[in-house]
């Protein structure tokens, strides 16, 4: 017969092995919020007149399903359920919001939690309004002045 002796144990997870290993854990959380401030000015690409965006007629053109977040510079409510995003180089992009979302909720700008790839994508990321609304994006369209 085998004989076992047990003494005081200060490591409850390794009582029988007698290992002298201490376990430590480090957890690092990082959260980055990207803000698109409300933009009152027309994009620089439209000329020096600074015309109101509402007075200019636009043609919509399909673009991809994702936008690089670091290229976006501002936002403003568009017609109906859309949000107009202005890039840092003056390109205007319309983001159509999901069901139940109104563009007027984004009068003070929009923000989002930065994704792992640095992109804002259709049916993946949420846009947040300062009023508390959370909306996903159904599609993006490039706006070209006529």
Report on the structure:
The chain is mainly beta and 146 residues long. The chain is built from no helices and ten strands. The strands form two sheets. Strands 1, 2, 4, 5, 6, 7, 9 and 10 form an eight-stranded antiparallel β-sheet that branches. Strands 3-8 form a two-stranded antiparallel ribbon. The chain starts with 32 loop residues before the first strand and ends with a strand. About 7% of the residues have low confidence.
What's the quick description here?
Helices cover 0% and strands 36% of the residues. With 146 residues, it is mainly β. The N and C termini lie far apart (95 Å).
Features:
146 residues, two-stranded antiparallel ribbon, 10 strands
Give the termini distance in whole angstroms.
95 Å
The residue fraction in helices comes out at under 10%
Approximately what portion of the residues adopt beta-strand conformation? 35-45%
Shape: elongated
Structural class: mainly beta
Number of distinct helices: 0
What is the radius of gyration computed over CA atoms, rounded to a whole number of angstroms? 26 Å
User: What integer is the average pLDDT?
Assistant: 79
Number of DSSP E strands: 10
Biggest β-sheet description: 8 strands, antiparallel
């Amino acid at each position: 017969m085998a004989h076992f002796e047990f003494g005081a144990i200060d490591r409850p997870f390794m009582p029988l092995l007698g290992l002298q290993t201490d376990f430590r854990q480090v957890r690092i959380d990082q959260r980055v919020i990207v803000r698109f401030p409300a933009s009152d000015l027309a994009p620089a690409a439209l000329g020096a007149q600074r015309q109101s965006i509402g007075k200019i007629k636009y043609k919509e053109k399909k673009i991809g399903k994702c936008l690089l977040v670091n290229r976006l510079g501002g936002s403003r409510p568009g017609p109906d359920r859309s949000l107009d995003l202005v890039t840092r180089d003056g390109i205007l992009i319309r983001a159509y919001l999901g069901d139940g979302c109104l563009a007027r909720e984004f009068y003070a700008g929009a923000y989002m939690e930065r994704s792992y790839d640095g992109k804002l994508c259709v049916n993946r990321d949420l846009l947040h309004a300062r009023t508390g609304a959370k909306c996903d994006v159904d599609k993006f369209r490039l706006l070209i002045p006529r």
